């Protein structure tokens, strides 16, 4: 896999801010995998690993892209909503299903 040594974050603080606004809020995030193909999110795995190796796969950079300030853009994955949003979404789905059962059919 092609990698680049261009880091998307200027320092550790930038990384921590991005991480807390993206991966740390995602219900799919985990940082215990030791192999990319076993990680729940290969992009999060790449970013975590890049903090130590200073190499990020070009595929990952292209996936996220950059915002107008040339910082790594926020995660575009649909399931990467904030955990609170995800939990609210799950509750809303249950509520909709419950209401569907109680609805009378239209005549």
Overall mean confidence score, pLDDT? 76
Q: Main β-sheet: number of strands, strand sense, barrel status?
A: 2 strands, antiparallel
Order of helices and strands: EHHEHH
Into how many domains do the coordinates divide?
1
Set down the secondary structure blueprint.
Layout: E1 3-4, H1 12-21, H2 42-53, E2 56-57, H3 58-64, H4 83-102
Antiparallel strand pairs: 1-2
Structure description:
This protein has one domain (3-81). The longest helix has 20 residues, at 83-102. The relative contact order is 0.17. The protein is mainly α and 107 residues long. The model has no long low-confidence stretch (mean pLDDT 76). The protein is elongated. Strands 1-2 form a two-stranded antiparallel ribbon. The protein has helices at 12-21, 42-53, 58-64, 83-102; strands at residues 3-4, 56-57. It is built from four helices and two strands; from the N terminus they run βααβαα.
Features:
107 residues; elongated; 4% strand; single chain
What's this entry about, in short?
With 107 residues, this protein is mainly alpha-helical. It has helices at residues 12-21, 42-53, 58-64, 83-102; strands at 3-4, 56-57. 46% of the residues lie in helices and 4% in strands.
